[in-house]
Amino acid sequence: MTDKYEIDFVNIINIFIKKRYYILISILIFIFIGIYNLSSATYKYRVQLQIFPVKENNSLSLVNTSFSLTSVLRGSSSTNLRVGKFELYKAVFHSKLLANEILKDIDLMKTVFPGEWDIENQKWKKPELSRLSNFKNAIKEFINMPIYYPSEPNEERVYNILKEFRFDTNDDNQLTTVYVDTDRPEVYKILLEKLNLTADKILRKKQIERTTSHINFVSELLPKTKQTNQRLSLIQTLTQQQKQLMLASSNLPYSAEIFSDIFQQEKHVSPIARNFLFIYLLFGTFIGLIVALILNHFDKRK
Predict the structure, then answer these.
(1) Are residues 81 and 33 in the same domain?
(2) Distance (Å, rounded) from C-alpha 255 to C-alpha 87?
(3) Does position 13 have pLDDT exceeding 70, yes or no?
(4) Is 248 among the domain residues?
């Protein structure tokens, strides 16, 4: 009973040897298809920028006191500020806040979304639906599925582009590489430069607003405080906040400093011809083996 269902591997191998020309033809056909697809493939190149966290001046750290106001206000300039600012920088880089700011640069958006600007009417063109899209939408409407229509360049589309960028940090020296793989490297080099400057600008602006608010609060509280220790603590806090405001107001990088300029790798990162053709080789071999078994089955029935 068992022998009936046993697989005769020797027989199967003999079948493959007998039908080897069919297997070879299948492999060649798929390799030629792979070469054709490779010739018309879109090649992507890596665009990258190397940055590192802006280091804080240790002399700017607040004096540890028991005064509760100091412990509250020093949150913006504690020893975790360097890490916190850079983590915020990375968070802003993948945020809709940054997407909204970038969207305001119309000239840049015309480059990122070519052919979508209506020169005559000076506004974004409304995307037109193809017949196939209308047909798909009709089916979705019939089965009560949500329908999503294409839109002109907006915050959501820019946000999806921001999500393409990746961060790779060297744990030894905190050197971070911001990179993206794209088939439009020249456009993305311009975009990456703008993103870096705008993300740093957003954090700088928020720090200035927060520090100014702290300074105003402490300045109002100082004349009302009579105890010497508390007044000393307030003065120290006020001095610290003014230094933070000065740093945030300067032209120096606030959260991330450029280590090396934006550049494009000369060699493309995808598709890799060797891996691409190997996949087609596997498909061709698999299909060839299946064809060999099918042909052998029909030969037996003759």
Answers:
(1) no
(2) 9
(3) yes
(4) yes
Structure tokens at 158: 């820019």
Looking at the structure, tell me whether residues 177 and 266 fall in a common domain: yes
Tell which wins on pLDDT, 247 or 180.
180
Residue 88 and residue 213 in one domain = yes
Tokens of 204: 């700088």
Q: What is the residue range of 33's domain? A: 10-41+272-302
Query: 167 with 219, same domain?
Result: yes
Nearest to 156 by CA among 190, 113, 188: 113
Number of folded domains in the chain?
2
Whole-number Å distance between alpha carbons of 34 and 276:
7
Specify if 1 maps to a domain. Answer: no
Q: In Å, how far are 12, 16, 153, 293 from 289, measured between CA atoms?
A: 10, 7, 49, 6
Q: Which of 61, 89, 87, 88 is nearest to 75 (CA)?
A: 61
> Long-range contacts: 20-28, Cβ < 8 Å, 24+?
20/292, 22/288, 22/291, 22/292, 22/295, 23/285, 23/288, 23/289, 23/291, 23/292, 24/288, 25/288, 26/284, 26/285, 26/287, 26/288, 26/291, 27/281, 27/284, 27/285, 27/288, 28/284
Whether the predicted model's global pTM rises above the 0.85 cut: no
Cis amide linkage into residue 271, ω under 30° from 0:
yes
Length of the chain: 302
